[in-house]
Amino acid sequence: TMVLSGALCFMKDSALKVLYLHDNQLLARGLHAGKVIEGEEISVVPNRTLDARLSPVILGVQGGSQCLSCGTEKEPTLKLEPVDTMELYIGAKESKSFTFYQWDMGLTSSFESAAHPGWFLCMVPEADQPIRLNQQSEDSAWGAPTCDATITDFYFQQCD
User: What family does this belong to (predicted)?
Assistant: First the structure.
């Protein structure tokens, strides 16, 4: 259980919108009419089969009973699948479709799909939109998303 110590947290994008679950999708919204919305607890578990230097993590919701997945198609689609984070952690499979490389940007982190290099978790500035994947072009400056309207930096805040 040492792995999971401090692994439960709330995830906010760099515009400080909180992720929450609605209709089996992770959406993000900021302060709503002055009320703080209850964020979804995100469980973060390392993927032990991939190179630890790349900080491979599996992101789960609902107490780890569902995981964020990029799917198995050529073009990645972000969705929640009913797979247990701990089963993926214990298992010997690479589970790349469920894995993101966590790029540490100092205070924030960016998350690159392990199965689809160059695709990052991102949010749009508008409220109540789902978290999605955004492809970073080869020629853009490193760390700069292709489209200014997307946010690829996320904060983690420990759950109490």
Answer: Belongs to the IL-1 family.
Domain count of the chain? 1
pLDDT (tens digit per residue) in 77-90? 999 999 999 999 99
Amino acid 100: pLDDT: 97
Question: Residue holding tokens 């995981």?
Answer: 67
Which is nearest to 14 in space by CA: 143, 146, 156? 156
The CATH number that applies at residue 110 is: 2.80.10.50
- Global model pTM greater than 0.90: no
Return all residues near 60 (Cβ < 8 A) that are at least 6 apart. 42, 43, 44, 45, 66, 67, 68, 84, 85
CA nearest neighbour of 108 among 152, 78, 58: 152
Provide CB contacts within 8 A for 140, sequence distance 6+: 146
**Full domain range(s) for residue 83:** 11-158
